[in-house]
């Protein structure tokens, strides 16, 4: 289940482990751009988009958590 601590590290473009995993992902999905600079740029763009989406939403963390947990429950029932 999700909790608030899952969102503590939101600067993924500064996290070396995340950068390495992104480069590894790019090796399969976009080999021509599987490098550190592109990976960092991709992570930063993702963060901007996520922040824009979050700012546009009136969903509180508790509401988000409830919906995520309900979705997890529905998935596990199938």
In short:
67% of the residues lie in helices and 0% in strands. The protein is an all-alpha fold and 78 residues long. The protein has one domain.
Structure, explained:
By secondary structure, the protein is mainly α. The protein is built from 3 helices and no strands. It starts with 15 loop residues before the first helix and ends with a helix. 3% of the residues are buried.
Largest sheet: none
Which outline best applies? Answer: extended
User: What count of structural domains?
Assistant: 1
Low-confidence stretches: none
> Can you give the mean pLDDT?
82
What's the β-strand tally? 0
Oligomer: single chain
Structural class determined from secondary elements? mainly alpha
Strand content: under 5%
Query: Radius of gyration in whole Å, from Cα?
Result: 16 Å
- Number of DSSP helical runs: 3
Bin the helical content.
55-70%
Determine the N-to-C terminus distance: 17 Å
What is the succession of H and E elements? Answer: HHH
Summarize the helices and strands and which ones pair or pack.
Elements: H1 16-29, H2 36-56, H3 61-77
Helix pairs in contact: 1-2
Record keyword descriptors for this entry.
78 residues, mainly alpha, extended
